[in-house]
What does this fold into?
Amino acid sequence: MSILNYLLAIESSCDDTSVAIIDFNYKIVHQVTSSQVEHNRFGGVLPELASRLHIKNIMYLTELLIRESKINLNDIKAIAVSINPGLIGSLIVGLSFAKSFAWSLGIPLITVNHMMGHVFANYIEHRITPPFLALVVSGGHTELVFFNDENTFVTVGKTLDDSAGETFDKSAKLLNLGYPGGPVIDKYAKDGNPEFVKFPRALKQKDDYNFSYSGLKTAIKLYCHDKDSAFLEAHKSDLAASIQMAIIEPLISKTVRYAKVNNINKILLAGGVAANSLLKKLLQEKAASINAELYYPSLSLCTDNAAMIAAAAIPKYIAGQFSPLSVNAFSEKGIRFI
Ligand code: KG4
Ligand code: ZN
It folds into this structure.
């Protein structure tokens, strides 16, 4: 594909408004993201506030993107947008904007499942060819997905209740460490003892590939409720290390076991939790022990961003999988990773 062909993508599924232009070699030409720090003081994302901030930012960010990238609008071949899973109000802002933009330029609209975006973030920095196994771990999802090719995949394991990312977030709240919990637990865990408390590992004995985090969440809650805040503060590193290990151990063991049993030699880590430093290190070591290669995105591409949505749209563009302008924010439910 000629270098003058670009894809413009929009991501607004949660609390980041992000727009990006990439070329068809998965190279980011430019990206602008506005992270909604306004939610931090509430200890979580307020959906109504998120939608309003997307409305406020999306037009300005897109104008800035086009101006700074110096790309001619005639060279943009399609508009990609994430639809589902996500906050409905936030998704509607991005989708409505993307539809109008595609319609006004007379180019196709490509709707992208947000979780697919996380998987294809890996294509931006690595040359990968399927088949591969993807461990998708974000604030709302914990899934093991096998890709036969870029457009054909099957979910082989998933959480039966809560997600790994949510467990990081809720634990950090109990330890009074703020929101989002993953980065701060990751940081304190570096100086802590993962054996300080032996929290339960769910479904360890089961030979399937599902995960469960509700029991662990309850165990952490009961443990913290028993302690005063001075104790939690004094032992925050040890607790962070113990919690982190309890969350990531099942992710690592089940992913590597599936890859080994099915002779898969490429594993992709994806989603916000893919930023976790110990998860990357231990998964890489275990993958190497079965001669599998681990790929993960750099930090800035782990969290929500529009470039990953553009990357996931490329195989759809090549396959001619365009969406009608009548598409709605629930239309991709059928391929949702749950
Ligand atoms: O993919 P993402 O940005 O948003 C969703 O699609 O949900 O993931 C957000 C999740 C949050 O739960 C956050 O705590 C977690 O990713 N996270 C981390 C780290 N950085 C972000 N979890 C563990 N370690 C990290 N370093
Ligand atoms: Zn995400």
Summary: Strands lie at 6-11, 16-23, 28-35, 76-82, 109-112, 132-137, 142-149, 152-158, 266-270, 293-295. Residues 131 and 148 are 5 Å apart (CA to CA). Residues 114, 118, 138, 271-272, 304 surround zinc ion (ligand 2) (CB under 6 Å).
